[in-house]
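For the sake of transparency, this paper describes our internal protein records without simplification. Because each token names a local backbone shape, the row as a whole describes the fold. One such record is reproduced below, unchanged from the form in which we store it:
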Amino acid sequence: RLEVHEDADRLASNKKIVNDSLRDRMKIVQSHLDSFSKYNHLIPGGESDQFLDKFCTEEHSFKEVLDKVLEYKEIANEIADLPTIIVCEAISVDSHPLIDALKTRADECTRTLIDKLSQIHRDFNTKVCESYESIKRRALKDPEDTKELMKLMEIMETVKLTQLG
């Protein structure tokens, strides 16, 4: 028959080593998880949604919107470069689903801003077309007398210098 003798000091020492090791590993895991906190604003219904709703209803230049598109694209690229699996002896953290969700969300924000950019571009092009239509109507109107002809020539010269030049 085998007798087991328990050495309380040795058991306590080994227990402390295991606990210290697990605590150290958990610090690494927690540090990895904390690295995602800078992307909290991407959580649906959060700051990014509020920002985009407000931003897209305001008037912004093409460059301002493009800068925001590039900012969100950079965030998506940062997220894609994050490590997906962290292994610390006895502990493994698979961040792949979180990274995919965050990257998808950053891409959605980018698409929202690109839609805004497209709208700005369409509006600008519409205004340009309307302006040319107005010029065309003036240019094709037959002057009734010399005074009107001179005025039309003056208008066309102004258009040429200010709108076409």
